[in-house]
Design brief:
Length: 277
Amino acid sequence: MKKLMALVLAALMLFTMAACGGKTDGDTTTAAPDDTQGTAAAENSDLAYIKGKGKMIIGITEYAPMNYLDEAGNWTGFDTEFAEAVCAKLGVTPEFFVLADWDAKTNELNAKTIDCVWNGMTITEDLKDGMDISVPYVINAQVIVCKADDAEKYATVESIADAKIAVEGGSAAEKLVAELGYNNVTAVTAQSDALLEVKSGAADVAVIDITMAKAMTGEGTSYEDFTYTASLSEEEYGIGFRKGSDACTEVNAIIAELMADGTLDALAEKYELTLVK
């Protein structure tokens, strides 16, 4: 009887182990690791997305001396060379994409048409709401540009109150003249178009970045009879990335390297710009 009971108990134990999925001493099978978190992290990394493509698509407009075409039709300029230096350290190729509408730059970022905005972009609180912005790198100002014959007439910010003013749509200049309450304002596609408005007589003055004013007016330029007068504000340039982008953090680290090794000092001297130190 005792032997019979022992056999019954042994059978029950084996049945219970099988039903519960118990492992025998020789079973070395382990569950497959769950890589869901790792995959999700890669998908959420903007830097990984850019590196995975092997290129960074950079939103620009034609804007000397930041991004403009040389005689051979290739992009050059301070921001162009700056972007090329950063992309070399990232191990990706820069691809320059001309924005048809500067005012739509945040939408283009979010749609992933571009990966960043790198074109003498003035840092503003409004822009910070829609994108992450790098550390500032160049000091800029918004200035009044007019024909040299009108320089005395438009020598102050107050003097353009009743003038016909041309600005780039969605720019810091447009915001500034609106804050001043000036209503006779024409918003055009690009800063270069604002200069054309003055040249044609459609506008009396343009309000544009001093960086462009220096490069585009005076002797040896297409606007030899133009000059710039008063400054409406001082500001700083930054690079715009998608909100929450880890690419912004990485680029900030590279900017620090390029500041330390003198690369940006050399570029600033070449293009006659003032760095943020």
